[in-house]
Amino acid sequence: DLTLQHDEQKVLLNGILSNAESDQLNILFKDFNLSSLNGITKPLGITMSGAMNGNLEINSLFKSPYFIANLQTNPILYNQLPIGKLSLKANYDQNANIVHLDSKIDDGNKSITLAGTYNIKEEEDKINLKASLKNTDLILFQPFLKSLVSNLQGRVHGELDIKGNIDKPKI
Hints:
Blueprint: E1 2-6, E2 9-15, E3 24-33, H1 38-41, E4 48-49, E5 51-59, E6 66-73, E7 76-78, E8 81-93, E9 98-107, E10 110-119, E11 127-137, H2 142-145, E12 155-165, E13 168-170
Antiparallel strand pairs: 1-2, 2-3, 3-5, 4-7, 5-6, 6-8, 7-8, 8-9, 9-10, 10-11, 11-12, 12-13
């Protein structure tokens, strides 16, 4: 057991990381300040603020890793833009070796939902996700499209299918 705490925020770590497939690490977040991640995200052109609560379970990290998550945030500022509250759930089906994902960022009349599966055993087409964008600010995508476009403005509404692999998604 390891607890990291600063003021009101806490991260509790409990578990074992080894080569055994049955070993797991449980991470509990309580009022975790998302700006603590800016050291990692800022080189990507992303800064965040807000607080996160929930738990993350990491299994078989060194063999065939998979995650189970139940995370929520208060309203997030993403590059100084309010984007809403995040709710993320990911569950692993051991029999099928599939992770089921259900996530949503909601800010009243603006939202982004992402739902579907990640197939651990597949070599190709591991991802099968559907994204729904409702009145979403285009500027959110600027850090990911900076080599293609700049100065994105406006809002988007639509549906996306995302398939393939994490390193080469097909949208």
